[in-house]
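Tutorial handout. Part one gives the primary structure; part two gives the three-dimensional structure as tokens.
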Amino acid sequence: MEWMFMPLRRYAEFSGRSRRMEFWMFAVLQFLIGLVFIVLFMLLGGGLLALANSDPSGALAAGGAVLGLAMLYMLVSLALLIPALAVSVRRLHDSDRSGWWLWVFWGPYLLALVTAGAESDALAGIIGLALIAGSIVLLVFYFLDGTPGPNRYGEDPKGRGTADTFA
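Part two.
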């Protein structure tokens, strides 16, 4: 449980290194939070349909609850964005890579948002492929073990020494 909340304690700390356990447990925490919101949306949405069939004023009240839940979800997502970026950068640092590698995902993603209204299927396809490729590259980096011993981003979070320690 401690690993899940460590990125929240290191909220906007982009320097240093993070172990795989810290990164992936925070990913599990984000998944569980999203799952809770999905279940709540389904419960409220189902209640909304039932109310719409019997009482229109009750449906409006339930619709307001769904809107409030959506705004809460948006706030929670925004609050978790900074620690998610920070732990991602620290995870890349652990394998001696720059945090700028995050742009292999965020570049195509933001480009897709900007060009969403464009009517070019070829451009959308290229951006989509770049987004998939960038996601795969980052996923591989996140699964790789960190460099043993200190690197240019700090000490090894596992406390492993260099090879010459036992020489």
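Part three, for discussion. Residues 2-154 form one domain. The chain is about 70% helix and 0% strand.
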